[in-house]
Write a structure and sequence with these properties.
By secondary structure, this protein is α+β, with helices and mostly antiparallel strands. It is 29% helix and 32% strand. The strands form 2 sheets. The protein has a 5-stranded antiparallel sheet. Strand 6 and strand 7 form a beta hairpin.
């Protein structure tokens, strides 16, 4: 009997190990939201390491207005990030209620750096770029929103140092497969970042 019991336990353990625990998770269960909430509340190295996996930092180039970072924010990632940034008193129940009321989106964040030697006249230069997200086929964003990023200079002045753009994707259209993000400049240069959603929750 003991041998049989050990065999059953071994089989169950093997089965559990075969199930991917970090794959893209949608829709989230109450338990998943609680897990994300408590991970965010830790605000320690484990939280930072988790969030860092969702960011691609791209090498600098000689071109102006280059893409510096691309980040993918899955529903689970958003729960962790919201919890990490929350004020004292924010609860797991609040996290669940917020998740239930929120439109289920994957947000792709693109951070672009402005050329430091150029006087920026048009603060909406980012609108001249084209942003694409695709898996087996292109995923059309429900919204693309962006804004300039300023740096406060001495004397109270400010200068444009970059721009941040968010692509909002319907979470139901996204699969647990690689997600490719492309940013095309007005001159035709293409910057690509890829995220394997089978390895990101």
């Amino acid at each position: 009997m003991r041998k049989v019991a050990r065999g059953i336990i071994a089989l169950l353990s093997a089965g559990c190990l075969a199930v991917p625990t970090s794959a893209y998770d949608y829709p989230l269960s109450n338990q998943a939201v609680r897990e994300g909430y408590f991970l965010g509340q830790r605000r320690d190295e484990s939280t930072a390491k988790f969030l860092a996996r969702y960011v691609k930092r791209l090498p600098a180039t000689k071109y102006p207005w280059q893409v510096a970072e691309v980040e993918v924010r899955t529903p689970y990632h958003q729960v962790v990030l919201r919890s990490r940034q929350s004020l004292p008193g924010y609860s797991a129940q609040q996290a669940w209620e917020e998740y239930r009321k929120r439109k289920p989106l994957i947000v792709v964040r693109v951070y672009m750096v402005a050329p430091v030697t150029q006087v920026i006249v048009n603060e909406n230069v980012w609108q001249q770029f084209r942003f694409h997200a695709a898996q087996e086929k292109e995923i059309h964003p429900s919204a693309v929103v962006g804004w300039p990023v300023y740096s406060i200079a001495g004397g109270g002045g400010s200068t444009i140092v970059g721009a941040e753009v968010h692509l909002e994707l319907d979470a139901a259209q996204v699969l647990s497969t690689p997600l490719r993000v492309e940013v095309k400049s007005p001159e035709g240069r293409v910057t690509t970042a890829e995220f394997d959603l089978s390895r990101l929750r």
